[in-house]
Design brief:
By secondary structure, this protein is of the alpha/beta class. It has one domain: Rossmann fold. About 30% of the residues lie in helices and about 35% in strands. It is built from 5 helices and 10 strands. It has an 8-stranded mixed beta sheet with strand order 5-6-4-3-7-8-9-10, with helices on both faces. Strands 1-2 form a two-stranded antiparallel sheet. α2 crosses α3 (about 60-70). The longest helix has 14 residues, at about 30-45. The radius of gyration is 16 Å and the shape is globular. Bound molecules: guanosine-5'-monophosphate. Guanosine-5'-monophosphate binds near residues 21 and 100.
């Protein structure tokens, strides 16, 4: 069992609706030593790739992506959620359905911060149905950038996102894959990796 799986078993809470709550160490209060370890682990896994930018989506991806970008010594860019319907021509835009809030958001990245010379590592906290990652992939592709890989902290392997992204041919690395979780007993089962 790796450092993250141990922490999930210790402090993760299984909620109804297939939601795993990890807000005591990952996406509300953040354990900075753990974040540093996550950053180092993604660097180790993607060290063979010529990464020039780390791309994520607000809000909960940002804190993690910062530590990954620091390891690579490159900028971190986050897609912003935009309420405005009048999107101007200087932005790459994708539509993303939120797993936790069940609403659709347009997410945008300025054309100034992503271009065809970029080699992008996409980072997010969770992977469920894959909408967030697909939105980020489409933004990177609109820019003509190369998606070198995707790094996820917690993949819920019983939801379809991981299969969809891997079937598209992308290299997807998840630090922990939850294959089953039981809202009544709180039991969490990880995939052997
Ligand atoms: P997807 O787009 O893959 O369906 O969902 C991924 C996004 O939804 C992530 O950015 C994450 O913020 C949120 N999310 C999905 N599942 C969970 C979960 O079990 N717990 C938490 N805290 N966030 C989740």
């Amino acid at each position: 069992m790796n450092f993250l799986e141990e922490r999930i078993l210790k402090d993760g809470i299984v909620k109804s609706g297939n939601v795993l709550k990890v807000d005591s160490f990952l996406n509300h209060q953040m354990d900075i030593s753990l974040m540093e370890e996550i950053g180092r682990e993604f660097k180790r896994r993607f060290q063979d790739k010529p990464i020039t930018k780390v791309l994520t989506i607000e809000a909960s991806g940002i804190g993690i992506a910062v530590f990954v970008a620091k390891e690579f010594g490159v900028p971190m860019v986050f897609a912003k959620k935009s309420k405005s319907i009048n999107i101007d021509g200087d932005l790459f835009v994708a539509e993303v359905e939120s797993f936790t809030h069940k609403n659709k958001n347009q997410v945008v990245v300025s054309k100034r911060f992503l271009n065809a010379d970029d080699h992008v590592l996409i980072i997010d906290d969770f992977l469920a149905n894959g909408c967030a990652l697909q939105g980020l992939i489409s933004i990177a592709e609109m820019a003509g950038a190369t998606v070198e890989g995707l790094g996820i902290v917690i993949e819920k392997g019983f939801q379809i996102g991981g299969r969809v992204i891997r079937n598209l041919g992308y290299r997807l690395e998840s630090l922990a894959i939850v294959d089953a979780m039981d809202g009544e007993t709180g039991k969490i089962t990880f995939r052997e990796q």
